[in-house]
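As a warm-up, study this chain.
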Amino acid sequence: MPDPIITGSADETALVPMSPEEGGWEPVEGDPAAIAHDYVKNEGMWSGLIVYQPCSVRETVANYSSIQVLSGQLILTDENGVTELGAGDLAFFSPGQNVTFTAKTEVREIYTVCGPFEA
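Now compare it with the structure written out below.
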């Protein structure tokens, strides 16, 4: 029998601390500590809700991934330029991209990262 449908709420989840090491970020400016809730984390996908305060971090993208900003203002900078995101905006990333994420306000986002991962 297939796994059940997984559901969650962006406002009622049990958020726990996520360190820069767990998230794969390199701090650039400010405090990159975040709180998050994983909805799915297995060998094929990692998806959840994350909330973080104003800061700037750098990440070399390891897997295909996406984010949807639920609230806040986020600036993405890569070798192609600057992209500003706000509530409702989506961004998609490919392996090998070097991206700087700059949160201008508190940001709430849904992230999805495609595997493979070690379960």
